[in-house]
Design a protein that fits this description.
This protein has 328 residues and is an alpha/beta fold. 42% of the residues lie in helices and 17% in strands. A hairpin with a 6-residue loop joins strand 6 and strand 7. Helix 11 packs antiparallel against helix 12.
């Protein structure tokens, strides 16, 4: 049998409530040269039962249940190892594909690109309200030449923080270091940007993915991830310049009063997060004291304070905009 052109690789854990809807959005779009590979990181709910229902009626779905939970990075890496496709789409277990998504990706990968980045639309947990129409604000598809890593990172880092946007040549993935990035939560960024890509990259401007916001396993760890893990990874990437890294994130974004207040208002930063993240950080006495104070400051005060600050900021931005229009 001829190897498939594309493997849609899904790493899942305890997604019985959502993975059926995800598969229902993908399966009607499949051709005979596409497979779905699901790696289950030892789910403790009935995810396996849901998936086995699909296995009974769909031969293009392959399912592998791990005996122990390995983590999202290891599970995605395992899914690529188990895949048969020339390309792998590292898709998520609770988001949806729009009709026409697979066909658009197939057209893109047959043009010789090493990497295809699929734009996405951000919605609420129930997928009923649009929160952001496009994660990448491009009106048309954009191609990047081999080695154009700074431009790719600058334009697409925000979208690439979501692994479901990544379609990558399988041989390229397997030929690169992956284990170094286990535990980073962003193995795909480490693989893509550890060295220049030998061929071109294409960004699909149309938002073919519907992201379900607020359902991530890492929501309780968001402060650690976005203030420590994400910047540490971005600043370790060998194929991009400091200027490109700076455009994505500060080296130490936790050294910012507004960032701490923002995460405190969301509930992601508290005393537990302080002791986990700042106990070993080289922050200095003054900044550790500031971080400690914000962690213990009542959210009942922080939330309205931050909301009022954000409101004033928007008013100021609007005032500057209209003033600039008046004097043009």
């Amino acid at each position: 049998m001829k190897a498939p052109l594309l493997s849609i690789c899904i790493a899942t854990y305890n997604r019985a409530k959502y993975i059926g809807e995800t598969l229902d959005s993908i399966l009607p779009q499949l051709d005979d040269d596409i497979e779905i590979v699901i790696v289950d990181g030892a789910s403790t709910d009935n995810t396996e039962d849901i998936i086995r229902g699909y296995l009974q009626r769909e031969s293009r779905v392959r399912y592998f249940r791990l005996s122990v939970k390995g983590g999202v990075d290891q599970d995605y890496d395992k899914s690529v190892e188990l895949a048969h496709g020339e390309f792998c789409w590292l898709f998520t277990d609770d988001d949806l594909l729009r009709p026409g998504a697979v066909a658009a990706v197939k057209r893109a990968i047959t043009k010789g690109h090493d990497l295809v980045i699929v734009n996405a639309e951000l919605r609420d947990l129930k997928l009923t309200t649009i929160l952001q129409h496009r994660r990448i604000t491009m009106a048309t598809d954009r191609e990047y030449p081999a080695g154009g890593m700074d431009a790719i990172l600058a334009d697409a880092a925000y979208c690439l923080s979501f692994i479901g946007a990544v379609v990558i040549r399988r041989s390229l993935w397997l030929n690169r270091d992956r284990e170094t990035y286990y535990g980073t939560e962003f193995i795909h960024m480490g693989v893509i940007f550890q060295a220049a890509l030998p061929s071109s990259t294409l960004v699909l401007a149309e938002p073919y993915i519907l992201i379900r916001l607020g359902n991530s396993h890492w929501m309780p760890r968001s402060f650690d991830i976005w203030m420590f893990k994400w910047p540490k990874l971005i600043w370790s990437l060998a194929s991009v310049s400091d200027k490109a890294r700076s455009a994505v994130t500060r080296r130490e974004p936790w050294r910012n009063f507004k960032n701490l207040v923002f995460h405190r208002s969301l509930g992601g930063y508290d005393a537990q997060a302080y002791y986990k993240c700042f106990s070993t950080a080289d922050a200095g006495v003054f900044w550790k004291a500031t971080a400690w104070s914000i962690a213990y400051f009542p959210r009942t005060v922080i939330v309205p304070f931050h909301s009022f600050y954000s409101y004033l900021k928007r008013l100021t931005q609007h005032a500057f905009f209209w003033a600039s229009q008046k004097f043009e």
